[in-house]
Amino acid sequence: MGDAYRMGAQELLKRLEKPKGRVDVVIDTDTYNEIDDQFALAYLIRSEEKLDLKAIYAAPFHNLHSQGPADGMEKSYQEILKVLRLMGEEKYVEVTHKGSDAYLPDESTPVNSPAARDLVRRALLQEEGKPLYVVSIGAITNVASAILLEPAIIRKIVVVWLGGNAPFWPDNREFNIYQDVAAARVVFGSGVPVVQLPCQGVVSSFSTTGPELTHWLKGKNALCDYLVENTVQEAAFNGQEGCWSRVIWDVTAVAWLLEDRFMRDCIQPIPIPEYDDKWGFDMTRHFYKYVYWINRDALFGDLFQKLSK
User: Fold this and answer.
1) Number of other residues whose CB lies within 10 A of the CB of residue 222
2) Could you point out which of 5, 19, 45, 274 has its C-alpha 20 to 30 Å from the C-alpha of 52?
3) In the prediction, which pLDDT does 239 show?
4) How far is CA 243 from CA 148, 209, 212, in A?
5) Taking a C-beta distance cutoff of 8 angstroms, is the pair 294, 265 a contact?
6) What confidence tens digit (pLDDT) does each residue in 146-195 have?
7) Which residues 6+ apart lie within 8 Å of 108 measured at CB?
8) Is 106 exposed, middle or buried (0-12, 13-18, 19+ CB in 10 A)?
9) DSSP E strand boundaries for 138-296
């Protein structure tokens, strides 16, 4: 799929370099699924000195917070609007789009949606040499659908995806990948430049606690109060009592576009998402960028400072 648009190794490696200056970004988020997408969306908006947010896409999800992927996407769309209102950033409402109402039925058939169509349109309009960065922090259905609708966009975008587990982890049964393995296979096999932030084994170290959130965020503004309350409620919903912490890992996908000190990464052949909750490996595959370490304290310091201002 899309062989006519694949990049050579040298061009691909150039696209995977850390961006310099201010960059164009869209974010694809299952915002109602958990409590970390709200942090990530707000962090992106508050990093306007480096990130120029062009669009927001609601991604599907299905867990205890939704009745199915369509319901999850709709709830995520409404949650995005809520975060924008709390931030006083209603200007982004007009570029917020509903995404897929289902997962990919197979690896050849896209799920057409306003989000997928908007991504295609924006990518094709992007000027040469200035990629559109797609920060995806949920099931990657919308991005895969856009690539299937128009394979040429792989030369215009860079996908920064938080999903899957570290290759040394016993399994790859991670929420963002197992919901739509077909979509992950489309993206990882398309030749599009990919930066992966694995969950278990890497980003799982990026967690915070109720007392820490209270100290740094409570009472600072309406958004911060909501983030603290929402996190505490989610901990209670999951039966966490006493000494507890919550991962805020979606923030790290945004942070990859910011400062080098926040994380370390490396280049290696892109793995293959398999349907048996494992990674497949082929050393002849094209390259991608793999994040293997997060500077937890430095990143939380920047996050708290930006959210509380």
Assistant:
1) 11
2) 5
3) 82
4) 46, 8, 12
5) no
6) 999 999 999 999 999 999 999 999 999 999 999 999 999 999 999 999 99
7) 1, 148
8) exposed
9) 157-162, 194-197, 207-208, 246-247, 263-269, 272-273, 279-280, 287-294
